Amino acid sequence: xxxxxxxxxxxxxxxxxxxxxxxxxxxxxxxxxxxxxxxxxxxxxxxxxxxxxxxxxxxxxxxxxxxxxxxxxxxxxxxxxxxxxxxxxxxxxxxxxxxxxxxxxxxxxxxxxxxxxxxxxxxxxxxxxxxxxxxxxxxxxxxxxxxxxxxxxxxxxxxxxxxxxxxxxxxxxxxxxxxxxxxxxxxxxxxxxxxxxxxxxxxxxxxxxxxxxxxxxxxxxxxxxxxxxxxxxxxxxxxxxxxxxxxxxxxxxxxxxxxxxxxxxxxxxxxxxxxxxxxxxxxxxxxxxxxxxxxxxxxxxxxxxxxxxxxxxxxxxxxxxx
Length: 322
Fold this sequence. Notes:
The chain is mainly alpha-helical.
């Protein structure tokens, strides 16, 4: 098996220095993006993710190798061109993993952790799941099936995670248009972390924003709609254990409590967050449609109407743990 360095472990000093630099800049510019308790919770979630990753990595490797050794269609060599192909294949996988994590409550239960902060800074990037690594790898199983070596896949997944660290900041406004058109940027990802109805479930990109533009989930950051970070219903806790598992508790409570059919109980696992079997829930597309009806009126908000070409069509899913 080829050996590649664990990029995440090597990057930890870079994470620390970058956060200190960002804290200095935001303090100097009077940008209140850091809150001590919130940042410490994010760091604790990141450390927990690294520790749990030592356990889950064995399961992930076992699954990837099982597919690679028994079912691969091709044997793709480890070469520069295969890493280019893998870059696009991995990023495509990440887009669909990320999108489904917003549209299926079973995956949202672990991904909600990353959206639970009401602040947006580099420490937010470290607020990672403690449970998702045990099952989210299923979105990458087609890669060893094609013939990519598992070691290559894990390396590229680390590269993607490292890229996404720097985009969690408010210190960078917008980058050159050609870069914003192709790559995921702080502006695009601020939208993704917004609880504003117009921003819900948008910009699922890892590295390339082209997937969102291709599959209709792109939303530009609007000058007249400041991003409000967090969830539709925020969790109001800094306890890392509660942050990690509160949505699992809420989901299982919805599944097993009350009188409902077996079919409806199962739907609480697979339907989007916010879905209710009695029809009382609201999904993000409902909230988005209500927002559009209110705001895309030239008489009530002419400035926003001028930016309407940057507003995309609603999709399902809702950022909430209620």
